[in-house]
Structures are given as C-alpha cells and as structure tokens.
Design a protein that fits this description.
Elements lengths: L2 H20 L1 H22 L4 E10 L1 H5 L5 H18 L2 H11 L9 E4 L6 E8 L2 H23 L3 E6 L12 H26 L6 H8 L10 H4 L1
Antiparallel strand pairs: 1-3, 1-4, 2-3
Helix pairs in contact: 2-7, 4-6, 5-6
C-alpha cells in the first residue's frame, strides 16, 4: 500500500467521523428512543419476578458422632452432593410441597438448586411473581427435601443455615441494565445506518470524489460565492 492509498483511507475515515458528528442529533434521538422503549418494556410489559433462597447443611454420620473424617468419607460426601439436587427436584418432594401449599402449575420450573464445590451446603432458590409466595415455597421445599435426603442417603442430619425471606427487589427485569443496553443498541444502530447511507450515497460531495469515483484528475475548484460574502 503506497502513501497515496494510505492518505485516501485516512481521509475517508476522517470524512466518516465528520459525518457521524454531523448526524449526532439523529444518533442521540435514536439512542434515547431505544432507551425509552427498553424502560417501557421493563416497567409495563414484563411481570417482575422475585427470587427467594434458603440454605441447608448436610451433616454426615461420622461428624455427628465426633469421629474424624477419612479421605474416603470426604470423597463419598463429594459424590453425594450431586445426589442432593436430584432428590430436591424429585417428583416426590415437589408433589408434597404442591399439596401442602395448594399450588398449581409446574413447580420444578420455579426451583433452582446450587451446591458450591467441595461443600455440603445446598442453596435452594425459588422464583415467583409474588415475593412472599417465593419465600413460602422455598421454606416448604427445604423442609420436605431435608426429610427426603435423610431418608435416602442415611445422613445424620440436615440443618437449616438460612431461611428464605421475601425479596424486597425483583431479580428480573433489571430495568437499569435494560435501559443502558437500549441506549447502547440505539446508538450503534443509528451510527450504522448513518454510515451505510453515507457509503451508499454516490453523489459527488467533495473534490476528492471526482478523482476517487470518476478516476479524473482534479485541476481546480470553483469556490462557493455565497461563502465568500
């Protein structure tokens, strides 16, 4: 690439940047419009969802008896934690919760279970449009799941580390994040449209366009008489 081509590229980039600056009002309006639509969507079209979480700790028999834990015990415990999630989400446990609370619909879709690596701490989260209902379901699920875990795995005890309480703020939608994403998306879209329209516009607007588009040598430029006054 020679110096003339490099100069042409630099001039083109500079021209496009100037075009974006000239259209800054349009870009700003498009960004604000997108942010407004994101706010309206988050505030009026989406039903807020609330998360409520309860945590339990599974006590192994050796620990309860005061005996030391062997490597085999620890390894077995790490394997068992993978079973706890399946037990909590089992149809037997979910049916008991639904019956006690007189719930309709698919309860499993509202429940998520997470277990930190190398621990026997289990977090049970429930998402619902009613924060009080989410906490009520989570606590009931914890109670029935604890009984089922003891019954199936023969662990010594399942203790409550943290009860579920109603959330004060919805987990979804995240209105602030959606507004920022709308603002960013609107800016990018408007900038892209401005650049595409400018690139597709084949009208001669600058003296350089005669050389670049038509391949002719520019001999001179006639000044605009209005600008000279």
């Amino acid at each position: 690439m020679n110096n003339q081509e490099m100069n042409t590229i630099e001039i083109d980039i500079l021209f496009l940047l100037k075009t974006i600056w000239r259209r800054k009002i349009v870009i700003l309006l498009m960004a604000l419009l997108s942010a407004g639509l994101a706010f309206a969507y988050s505030s009026f079209l989406v039903t807020p969802q609330y998360d409520s979480t309860t945590r339990i700790y599974v006590v192994v028999q050796h620990a309860e008896a005061g005996a030391g834990l062997t490597n085999q015990d620890l390894q077995a415990g790490s394997y068992l934690v993978k079973d706890y999630k399946e037990i909590i989400l089992s149809q037997d446990v979910l049916t008991q919760v639904a019956t006690e609370l007189n719930l309709n619909g698919n309860l499993k879709e509202k429940v998520s279970v997470s277990i930190p690596v190398d621990t026997r701490i289990v977090s049970i989260s429930v998402r619902d449009s009613n924060p009080n209902e989410a906490a009520r379901i989570a606590n009931s699920l914890r109670s029935f799941a604890a009984q089922k875990i003891i019954e199936v795995t023969k662990v010594s005890d399942v203790r409550t580390l943290e009860e579920a309480v109603p959330a004060e703020e919805p987990s979804t939608p995240n209105t602030k994040r959606n507004i920022l994403l709308g603002l960013l998306a609107g800016s990018i879209l408007a900038t892209g449209l401005v650049l595409i329209m400018e690139i597709l516009d084949d009208r001669v607007k600058r003296p350089q366009d005669i050389e670049e588009v038509m391949g002719l040598t520019l001999l001179g430029v006639v000044p605009d008489s209005k600008k000279l006054k």
